[in-house]
Design a protein that fits this description.
336 residues, homodimer, 6-stranded mixed β-sheet, Isopropylmalate Dehydrogenase, phosphate:acyl-[acyl carrier protein] acyltransferase activity (chains A, B), alpha/beta, EC 2.3.1.274 (chains A, B), 12 helices, FA_synthesis (chains A, B), lipid biosynthesis (chains A, B), 5-stranded mixed β-sheet, phospholipid biosynthesis (chains A, B), 2 domains
């Protein structure tokens, strides 16, 4: 029986989305959910649903961490917050995974400070599945470690490959390093050094540089970069997509009655086609390399993404990915 | 009379596009064009046009630099290439500006090695006008200097602001620093240090962090970053745009006769609306902070972009922007 801890208070819709997603995920057998948060609020939310009470347990917490707080300070001070309590459950092996839609900074800080890094892991990256023309790829690191070192990127690649192989059944997944050109001599000093380490590691399917424009074409399964670059990739994807779609919708609406008719005709097929670009359907972004799984879902999450993230956490736990990742990382006492 | 040197051999279409763009730009008065390249080829191309022979001069060169050569080696060895000869004309004040569609690496290396940096300039950035929802912004550095230092970014911002104020008549242009969040404590070490320097310089309209997703919304006029990040921004813009448009076109084509009809109805208004996202209409990307203007146009350029770049070069020269930029940079002997 997999036990999943849920920060039921985080996110813009907080308890509403988290509880909805939790209840709906119970169609899946073989797991129990622990909802961390304010007892009264959660009881109230749960009262709208019928569910097996054996499989959802409320763990009352008196505090919440907001997105406006300094993450490290909040983690240290708010010992009875849903985020810290949920993460402690993972650390103490009372839960196999933790899911939160709360402050990204607090989830990242809590992952390191409360759950803790697996032995030998330099820095746990935040990894997100992003849609491509051909499917999805894992962008790692997309938010945790700026000012990265070459050997960190090497580990991001290894952990990402294991994730894609186990969770998405992609055999020997191709790994690309984000670069500013395909030529060997291109790159900044971090990328040049990481390139060499990745080339030397023949246990993985490293295909060399990937230019930003090729990421969305889907020419590799694991896209490796430092968190600054990864965040720029993610935000540009989001920004350009949103802006272009709004330009197109706007054109349809304001180019006369024929264009409006055309818009009506295209609405359904376009919606269907572009569905694959909705990042929420892929579940949350796991932090890899911690002693237990932590998944960050979008702040503006809906119940559906939460349900997907719960399934993702269950699969991760059942496949013992925490252990497999730890085994793939060469043991080494990492200095702080 | 402004004199503009043109590398007539660079780019995918080489002489064809460059000569077409050159001849068409002659509608503009007050300038003379120097076409550097193989005499026979250029004579042949020019023979298709009627033009004032006083205003176009062929400067015969026996060598070409290809995009496959090591830029620095090529610049050092091929002294009679159209690229080196054209840049030398700028250095020797026989021309006011130089335009090339050739290898970006060679244009950047030649800018530094042949034309040379203006006194006090740490590193000349490659700056590109990119379309936004509201118009355009200048992305600087988008290709020249990876592993940048905070004070370089400060200069990129200053030079970019002067460019936007003078060339695009944007009064007191807003400057944003590419970052991974709006909060004060966000960023990598480069960005944090640059942020402080930019905040302290009250001569410019620095507005703080700009997240990648906001760049395309057009919320600032000068977008500052190191060349690695700038290249990722540029390539993501290109890649996401291309991919989304192909998905949409494909949906229209393969969703039955009604969708096809809709596509026909929308073709014209959409084309008109999306025209502003064609980067070529904004001319080329100037390298700022050199002793003379160097402009890089796209490798797959057409005549139209070349014409626009020539006008851009003429305006830059007439407004004495090289001098204005030099004056804005605090004099300082920069160590290599």
């Amino acid at each position: 029986m997999v036990r999943i801890a849920i920060d039921a208070m985080g996110g813009d819709l907080s308890a509403k989305a988290m509880v909805k997603g939790a209840v709906e995920s119970l169609k899946e057998e073989g797991m129990k959910l622990l909802l961390f948060g304010e007892e009264e609020v959660l009881k109230q939310e749960l009262s709208s649903y019928s569910y097996d009470p054996e499989r959802i347990e409320i763990v009352p917490c008196s505090e919440n961490i907001s997105i406006h707080e300094s993450p490290v300070m909040a983690i240290r001070r708010k010992k009875d917050s849903s985020l810290v309590r949920g993460m402690l459950a993972v650390k103490n092996e009372e839960a196999d995974a933790f899911i939160s839609a709360g402050s990204t900074g607090a989830v990242l800080a809590g992952g390191q400070l409360v759950v803790g890094r697996e032995k030998g892991v330099y820095r746990p990256p935040l990894a997100a599945l992003i849609p491509t023309k051909n499917g999805v790829c894992l962008l790692t690191d997309c938010g945790a470690n700026v000012d990265a070192k070459p050997e960190w990127l090497h580990q991001f690649a290894k952990m990402g490959a294991i994730y894609m192989e186990e969770m998405l059944q992609i055999k020997n997944p191709s790994i690309g390093l984000v670069n500013i050109g395909a030529e060997e001599e291109k790159g900044n000093s971090l990328v040049k050094a990481a390139m060499q380490i990745l080339r030397e590691d023949t246990d993985y399917n490293f295909i060399g540089s990937v230019e930003a424009r090729d990421i969305v074409e889907g020419n590799c399964s694991v896209v490796v970069c430092d968190a600054f670059v990864g965040n720029v990739v993610l935000k540009m994807y989001e920004g350009v997509g949103k802006m272009l779609l709004s330009e197109i919708t706007d054109t349809m609406k304001h180019s006369g009655p024929l264009a409006l008719l055309a818009a009506l005709l295209l609405k359904k097929p376009l919606k269907k086609r572009l569905k694959k670009f909705d990042a929420k359907q892929y579940g949350g972004a796991p932090i890899l390399g911690l002693k237990g799984l932590v998944i960050k879902v979008h702040g503006n999450t809906d119940g559906k993404e939460v349900t997907t993230a719960i399934k993702q956490a269950k699969e991760f736990a059942e496949k013992k990915l925490t252990k497999k990742i730890a085994e793939a990382i060469d043991f080494k006492e990492v200095e702080e």
